[in-house]
Design brief:
single chain, 9-stranded parallel beta sheet, 9 strands
């Protein structure tokens, strides 16, 4: 059975971050992952995780100018200096907090800038990988329904970029929700790309709620991860239908131990 991480970007959204860490520990999670925790001191997060014996996994690079529609900067031509500054901020926070991975957000790129965006992303990733050799850098495709224009939405696109970057610490974030919405054939893709996968995330398809509903049979997904020998964490990045604690009944439905 996989080991599960609480994604505190979505779980227990009704309370401050440090209280979310407490809630994750009470629920039985052994790890947490974050979105954009920069308004909370890294040392406070590290201490709270240590108090509960929790692993701190990944954090996201900054979004950029959200008022202008930014959703990451990695593939935005002409914004390389902003990307590097944001990455350095993320890396410094993550190292102080004890994180082990960074989700490098590519951003929304106009269709006519895709080729230039790719070369920009490759160069940004090469520099980032060299700056953070001990950190896993994760690439996640976001489906075009949720974020139209996001730079990539398929696993193959990310695998091609990883090959071009040529850095061993750049890996795929395999979010089953996004893969399911974008392209399907989830289990074959898990097997095909397993050597490149650095982290897995889950949520119901297509609702993004708890993983006990929808098109993906998660009991089978967990069995497949075991069969394939995946030994990393599985991040619970779903949007609860109601109260987060009430929704944890999915663990009983799927016979899962956190």
């Amino acid at each position: 059975m996989p080991k599960f991480s609480a994604n505190l970007g979505f779980l227990w959204p009704d309370r401050p971050l440090l209280d979310r860490i407490d809630a994750a520990a009470r629920a039985g999670f052994r790890a947490v992952e974050l979105h954009w925790p920069y308004d909370v001191p890294a040392g406070s997060v590290k201490q709270r995780c240590a108090d509960h014996g929790l692993h701190l996994l990944g954090i996201n690079t900054p979004l950029g100018r959200t008022g202008d529609g930014d959703f990451g900067l990695g593939a935005l031509p002409g914004r390389e200096a902003e990307f590097e500054a944001g990455f350095r901020q993320c890396l410094a926070w993550g190292e102080l907090a004890g994180a082990s991975a960074i989700h490098v957000m590519a951003g929304v790129v106009a269709a006519g800038q895709k080729a230039q965006g790719r070369s920009t992303l490759v160069e940004n990733l090469r520099k980032a990988a060299a700056l953070a050799p001990a950190m896993t850098l994760l690439l996640e495709g976001i489906n075009q329904r949720d974020k139209p224009g996001y730079f990539y939405s398929t696993i193959a696109e990310k695998a091609d970029i990883i090959a071009e970057v040529g850095a061993p610490n750049v890996r795929i974030m395999f979010d089953i929700y996004h893969v399911g919405v974008s392209e399907g054939d989830i289990f074959r893709k898990l097997e095909t790309y397993l050597p490149l996968i650095g982290h897995v995330q889950i949520a119901a398809v297509p609702s993004r709620a708890e993983p006990d509903e929808g098109e993906v049979h998660y009991a089978h997904a967990f069995a497949e991860l075991d069969r394939l020998g995946y030994d990393g964490w599985v991040g619970c990045e779903y949007k609860p239908r109601g109260g987060t604690d009430d929704g944890l009944t999915w663990t009983k439905t799927l016979n899962v131990t956190l």
